[in-house]
């Protein structure tokens, strides 16, 4: 201890104190301050970037979820649309069929009526023609028959017989 | 504890080696010659441990017994009835008396004393000179080294700070190696000990003290022969700054825990107060002694082992002490960083206790 006190040099102490305090202040201004600030900024930057990445990831997840939801909705809508269309198609077809049936029935009915009337007309016509023909034949026969007198009488007689029978 | 045991083991080892080897080798040699070398080595080590007024890089003795020195003189600044500034070359390495403005000064055991023209130093019973000592603010070798290290640190770290701006907040070159150390001091020394809220105001001091002590300690291991941290004045100045910072940034809680310790009975509080108060001084005092003693012990042991080579002058002893010196030098490299770390760590711990906020009890 005695030797320590003896060895103690006031001058060295003085200079060490002055130089060291000066060094601390100088380094604080020109080195430690800027260095620690830069490192702090860098760390802050890294932290921000990580946070941002995390946010982006979350957003991406949300987007994906949204996409899935939209897709699902679209699919459901498509299905309903298809179903509606199918129903509509079937409705139209059924309606058309019905209408066609009705139309066809009508046409058939009309045709039958026409056929019927035509048939009646034809029958009437035929009857007329048969009558005319019969009259013609009868005329001719009559003319032949009436050539002699006996025959005329016989004819009248037959005819009268016939008329009375029928 | 660890260091003490280590030194004991080393000393024991040396003792055994010196005894056996010298018994074998030097039995027929002249005994007084051997003594001379031992005394010279001891003086050399003592001289090395002290500050000096000129920057001597190395010295040797010619065959004629003349001491030659290689280095450069430094300014001597004395306050002795006015400011006196002169070159240390006037002392001729302590061999002559310097005459300035009619006053005579002489260096004795690396201190400047006022003497008469003949340079007589009168000693008292305890071998202490009775001559008056002028106030000495000389730019000694250590002051020069401190200044150069400060300059070096300033350029190194301010350049590093600039490289951040140029390179998108990333350091370049050597800064890449320094940054993890700075980060270590911030994240593993300052923040855990002081706390996230207050650590910022102490960072400049902690960083500066760590790098300063480390670089100075490393310089002490170079063959330049500088050894700043084994001057008690230097470690005292550093410890004083830690003490002042602790004392003047302390909050109410700190003082309350010193003068009126909560949670202990009344009479105990009165007994505890002076103990705690003393503790505030002992803490930085231990910082001062620890750094000083570690570095001094390292230098003494290392130089002693190197000195042994000159004593042995044998084929067994010299390689052995060379190996020992080499191993010890490696250990000292570790100690250089370790002491800087411990100083910084404990300073941070004391700052932490000064700003600690405990509302929990």
Automatic annotation (TrEMBL), chain A:
Species in which this protein is naturally found: Lutibacter agarilyticus
Transmembrane segments: 12-32
Pfam families noted in UniProt: ATP-synt_B
HAMAP family linked to this entry: ATP_synth_b_bprime (MF_01398)
A molecular-function term among this protein's GO annotations: proton-transporting ATP synthase activity, rotational mechanism
Classification via CDD domains: ATP-synt_Fo_b (cd06503)
Coiled coil: 43-91
InterPro entries: ATP_synth_B-like_membr_sf, ATP_synth_b/b'su_bac/chlpt, ATP_synth_F0_bsu_bac, ATP_synthase_B_chain
Keyword annotations: ATP synthesis, Cell membrane, CF(0), Coiled coil, Hydrogen ion transport, Ion transport, Membrane, Transmembrane, Transmembrane helix, Transport
Domain of life, source organism: Bacteria
Chief location category: membrane
Compartment list: Cell membrane; Endomembrane system
Keyword tRNA processing: no
Protein name: ATP synthase subunit b
Task of the protein: Component of the F(0) channel, it forms part of the peripheral stalk, linking F(1) to F(0). The b'-subunit is a diverged and duplicated form of b found in plants and photosynthetic bacteria.
Subunit structure: F-type ATPases have 2 components, F(1) - the catalytic core - and F(0) - the membrane proton channel. F(1) has five subunits: alpha(3), beta(3), gamma(1), delta(1), epsilon(1). F(0) has four main subunits: a(1), b(2) and c(10-14). The alpha and beta chains form an alternating ring which encloses part of the gamma chain. F(1) is attached to F(0) by a central stalk formed by the gamma and epsilon chains, while a peripheral stalk is formed by the delta and b chains.
GO cellular component: endomembrane system; plasma membrane; proton-transporting ATP synthase complex
Family: Belongs to the ATPase B chain family.
UniProt-listed Gene3D superfamilies: F1F0 ATP synthase subunit B, membrane domain
Membrane topology: Single-pass membrane protein
TrEMBL record, chain B:
InterPro entries reported in the protein's UniProt record: ATP_synth_F0_asu, ATP_synth_F0_asu_bact/mt, F0_ATP_A_sf
Pfam families registered for this protein in UniProt: ATP-synt_A
One Gene Ontology term, aspect cellular component: plasma membrane
Keywords noted in UniProt: ATP synthesis, Cell membrane, CF(0), Hydrogen ion transport, Ion transport, Membrane, Signal, Transmembrane, Transmembrane helix, Transport
Protein name (record): ATP synthase subunit a
CDD domains per record: ATP-synt_Fo_a_6
Cellular localization per UniProt: Cell membrane; Membrane
Membership in a protein family: Belongs to the ATPase A chain family.
Single Gene Ontology MF annotation: proton-transporting ATP synthase activity, rotational mechanism
Organism the protein comes from: Lutibacter agarilyticus
Function noted in UniProt: Key component of the proton channel; it plays a direct role in the translocation of protons across the membrane.
Transmembrane segments: 143-161, 205-226, 232-251, 291-312, 324-351
PANTHER family: ATP SYNTHASE SUBUNIT A
Topological relation to the membrane, as annotated: Multi-pass membrane protein
Signal peptide, first to last residue: 1-23
Keyword Cell membrane carried by entry: yes
Entry-linked Gene3D superfamilies: ATP synthase, F0 complex, subunit A
């Amino acid at each position: 201890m005695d030797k320590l006190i003896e060895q103690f040099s006031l001058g060295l102490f003085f200079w060490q104190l002055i130089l060291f305090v000066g060094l601390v202040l100088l380094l604080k201004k020109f080195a430690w301050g800027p260095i620690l600030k830069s490192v702090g900024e860098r760390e802050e930057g890294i932290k921000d970037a990580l946070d941002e990445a995390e946010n982006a990831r979350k957003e991406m997840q949300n987007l994906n979820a949204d996409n899935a939801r939209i897709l699902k909705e679209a699919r459901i809508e498509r299905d309903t649309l298809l179903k509606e269309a199918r129903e509509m198609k079937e409705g139209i077809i059924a309606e058309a069929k019905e209408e066609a049936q009705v139309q066809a029935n009508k046409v058939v009915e009309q045709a039958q009526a026409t056929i019927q009337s035509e048939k009646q007309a034809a029958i009437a016509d035929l009857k007329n023609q048969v009558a005319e023909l019969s009259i013609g034949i009868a005329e001719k026969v009559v003319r032949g028959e009436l050539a002699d007198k006996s025959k005329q009488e016989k004819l009248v007689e037959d005819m009268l017989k016939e008329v009375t029978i029928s | 504890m660890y260091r003490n045991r280590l030194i004991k083991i080393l000393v024991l080892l040396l003792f055994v080696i010196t005894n056996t080897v010298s018994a074998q080798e030097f039995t027929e040699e002249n005994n007084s010659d051997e003594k001379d070398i031992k005394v010279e080595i001891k003086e050399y080590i003592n001289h090395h441990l002290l500050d000096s007024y000129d920057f001597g890089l190395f010295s040797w003795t010619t065959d004629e017994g003349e001491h030659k020195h290689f280095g450069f003189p430094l300014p001597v600044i004395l306050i002795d009835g006015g400011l006196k500034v002169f070159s240390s070359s006037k002392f001729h390495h302590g061999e002559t008396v310097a005459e300035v403005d009619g006053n005579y000064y002489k260096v004795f055991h690396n201190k400047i004393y006022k003497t008469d023209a003949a340079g007589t130093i009168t000693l008292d019973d305890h071998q202490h000179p009775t001559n008056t000592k002028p106030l000495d603010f000389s730019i000694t070798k250590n002051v020069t080294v401190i200044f150069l290290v400060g300059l070096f640190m300033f350029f190194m770290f301010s350049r590093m700070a600039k490289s951040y701006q140029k390179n998108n907040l990333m350091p370049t070159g050597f800064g890449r190696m320094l940054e993890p150390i700075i980060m270590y001091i911030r994240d593993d020394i300052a923040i855990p000990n002081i706390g996230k809220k207050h650590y910022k105001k102490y960072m400049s001091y902690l960083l500066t003290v760590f790098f300063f002590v480390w670089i100075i300690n490393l310089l002490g291991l170079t063959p330049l022969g500088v050894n700043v941290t084994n001057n008690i004045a230097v470690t005292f100045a550093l410890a004083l700054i830690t003490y002042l910072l602790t004392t003047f940034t302390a909050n109410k809680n700190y003082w309350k825990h010193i003068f009126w310790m909560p949670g202990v009975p009344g009479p105990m509080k009165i007994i505890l107060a002076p103990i705690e108060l003393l503790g505030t001084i002992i803490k930085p005092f231990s910082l001062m002694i620890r750094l000083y003693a570690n570095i001094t012990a390292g230098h003494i042991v290392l130089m002693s082992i190197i000195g042994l080579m000159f004593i042995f002058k044998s084929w067994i002893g010299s390689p052995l002490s060379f190996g020992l010196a080499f191993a010890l030098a490696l250990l000292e490299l570790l100690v250089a960083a370790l002491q800087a770390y411990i100083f910084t760590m404990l300073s941070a711990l004391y700052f932490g206790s000064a700003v600690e906020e405990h509302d929990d009890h």
